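Work package 3, deliverable 3.1, input record:
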Amino acid sequence: MRYVRGIFLFAFLLLAGCGLNSAEGVVSAPSREQRLVIYTSHTESVYAPLIKEFEERTGIWVEVKTGGTLELIECIKEKKENSDCDLLFGGGADTLEANKELFAPYSKERNGTNESWTPFSSSPLVLIYNTKLVRNNPPTGWPDLLKEVWQGEIAYADPQSSDSAYTVLSVLTQMLSGEESKLLAAFRKNIGNCGLVSAEQAVSEVANGNYYIGVTLEETALRSMQEGYDITMVYPEEGTCMQVDGLAIISGCAHEENARLFIEFMLEQDTQQYLAEHLNRRPVRTDVPLPEWLPEDISCISYDVSLGASRQKELLSLWRGLYREVTE
Amino acid sequence: MKAWIRRSFRNRIFVTILMITLVPLLLCDIIMMQVLLQRSESKLAGQAKEELARLEGDFANLMETFSDISEELCNNTMVHSALRRENKSSHVTYQLLFRLTDDVREYARFEIMDCDGNCQYTTDHTQSAGAMEPSWGILYAAGNSEELVFCREDSGDGMKAARAIRDYNRKILGYVVISMTRNGFDLLFSGNYSPTSSLLLLDAYWHPVYLTQSALGETAAASLRQQLLAGEKLSDEVRECSYFTRHQEATGFTLVLEQARTFTAPVRNTIYFVSIVMGILSLLLCLWGSWLLSRHLAEPVNRLDGAMKEVQKGNFDVCVSNSREDELGHLADSFNRMTEEYRKNLERTVEHQKEINATQLRMLQAQLNPHFLYNTLDSIKWLGVVHQVPDIATIATDLAALLRASISGNEFIPLSEELELIERYIAIQSIRFEDRFTCEIDIADRFQNCMVPKMVLQPLVENSILHGVADLEDGYIKLSAREEEGDLILSVSDNGCGIPPEILEQLNNSGRRLPGQHLGLFNVSSIIRLHFGEKYGISAEAEPGNGSVIRLRLPIQREETHA
């Protein structure tokens, strides 16, 4: 009994000591209705101004988590209901389509689609090359990527993390005639040991001369060129593929209303115009004029998104097999 | 542990002293630490809040001024007309702009833009600011508000404020834009906070507007935002900083003061180290003290314990040496005295036993060759029978019975048997003394079964015959019994010549000395005393020439109760 009393006294003193230690002046955190958690594969230069504008217009606090699209989707799948993600911002059509069971549809008349995800902009795949290094016979189309002259000289992001890179694989298989595995093997040889994480990196790798040519998105190439990178951008002559960028609400998320507000904001005319003028992305709204540096008349191939989506796993495992083959 | 404490009171003393020494010390340490930390923290917090209040005051004043200036510019008809005019450059507007911004130009750049976001007038002397979009960012916000609106720069370094210039139809003519850069904030805030602190100015969504330490501030601001959103207490455990926040109403911005803690981990560790060293020192002191004290207390007790074990083993010669005068000393003394008493008592008992043995031996010696005598007497009896002399046969039979009784193994016999022996004895003596005395036995039946030592009455009767009635012609001897105070009193009285006074005195005083005469009386007396204690024995009364009474006092022991 004596000991017990002693212990109580001791604990009381400690607690009394700690009790004085309480914090003051903590600004209260925003309420649940004022929050939104966004997972994005975009770089900060893309998402930061959009999110800043969204916050200031709506008063909603946005938390951002960045990563590769597939990586983020894996993360959402892994945590299931415990995932804090409300909205996936960015991601190609193939990837979003392949995971559409994760998303809640944004059914808005204006959008005209009842799909589980909402496209907000697009950017075509383009070829780039280092202007200093490539003088004669610059690449002009998709078959150039398989030519032996470019062996080990193509900058290309890992299709397992970047979905624009996956689209390249899918386009090659859908467009070029010939046996799939041979096509990919030829392309694989030209890649060499290039293990880039994102399509952004491909541009800087070409610009600093580590690689001669590369595949990336128009917006990335244009941004780099506006920043002064010495590269040339080529629209493939056979036609290119529009890499659609989508927004997807995670079904069962905590702040679904705010996620809808964000999509609404992204589809506003102001925002779409900002996308075109400052981020070199082609808006989905037809009432937004394109700036002069975005040519309207680029030819597009007929690319089957649902086929690309359904074959994603298959192609990626094939690619992984080739990757091991070459590195070994 | 508990068992260990209970095993010895030395351990108890040790633990008690340990607690008494350590607990107050530890309590003291903890309380001191807490008080010290609280004091220091509250002082620093007070200081930080003061600084923050001052900073916020300065900032609010400046913003107030900005608001006033912008309002004046917006409502100025000169500005309105200048913006409406096609020829936009107007020195009057410039004069107005510079006059109004005289006091605050060092903090910020003021611009007047037209409704398309093109800069028309600027206070900046080096570069003219680029165009801004009225459908985006700060101009969009200003277009939706009547007031001056604030927002951070896209680059995250600096602040912009804007107000729409409207004509009387509420149509937007242009905008007043105020840009405050890092330099302006440096100028505004420098010197208003202590050099160990740093300041973060965050916008309404806790993105950084201005940071005094831009490199560290960026990550600090990001982690503060995360902590705020997670609902945690703002802190930085790695850099050990405390944060104090203050909201600025007009702009919606938050001022955060980052203050380095005084009691950082190394300082705290030093304090803990000192406390622990103090603790160890007092522990050692306590060990030493309690060792001394417990030895002082426990040693005599252990000695006593050892001595008691010796006594248990049967060694009564132990003596606890003792030089102390306290309670333990008294205890040792008492123990010594007790052992001494016990030893003496034991010695007395042994002596006692020896005496009984000696007396019994003497009695046996007095009954020398009883078997020979008995056999002889048997022969005599048969001779008497053969020669038809009945007296011889009777004497021989009686004597044999006496002899047999005296050599039989029983030490105690019922009084009835004893009386039977007495009758035989008297029968023999009657023949010897030719019936010159008579003997009367007057003993109630209830005493018949009392147990008495064998042959205790015979010496008394013999004494009465030999020393009392031997010389008389009509001697008279009487045996009687009564009960007195629970004891049995057997008395033998005669009308003989009495007992000489010196013998009488010795008999009554339970003397142990064995005189030459009356040997039988003394033997009886000592046997009874040894068997039953000093209270019992023989007493005698006599008047010279007028007979004597000898009384025998015995405890009443019935036949059936005696083992």
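The longest strand of chain A covers residues 118-130.
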